[in-house]
Amino acid sequence: MRRTSSLLACSALFAASVALAQTASPPAADPVAAPPSVFTLGRIDFGLQAADADTDSSKFREYRDVPNGVVVPFFRIFGEGKYRFDLYAQNVRQDDARYRLLVERGPLRVEAEYDKIPHRLGNNGRTLLEEAARGVLAVSDTLQQAHQSAIAFSGNRRFE
Fold this sequence. Notes:
- The protein is of the alpha+beta class.
- It has helices at 2-21, 141-153; strands spanning 39-49, 69-80, 84-90, 98-105, 108-115, 129-133, 136-139.
- The N and C termini lie far apart (58 Å).
- Mean pLDDT is 74; it is low at 1-25 and 29-36.
């Protein structure tokens, strides 16, 4: 049911975009008209997303963010005037976002990039180590003895 409603919603959006794309061609440009704008909206993608993973897999979310709700997977604005600029963003406001900015005037060019790359090693992983002293991690004697006894009890002589 959930997939069917998602498929119907996507189909309706696709049909609406095709209908809008078939509008009449724009009138011929007036030679006396004002010069083109210095600001251009390149593209903005936005939508709603719901992630429904069957597993709580660490690999699924290791290097990416899969949000629920409103998303902006891509946008770009650029323009030219006194300065030439180009602003590009991908996965806006997510843990795996990427932003790029270019500003240029004559021979001077400034570029900046910012990549957010999460690296999640596990889902609520725990360690056997405890803080024995400030900045020093160690396995407690009790826990270490319990593990050694379990190995000895199992009859495995390789670890003795």
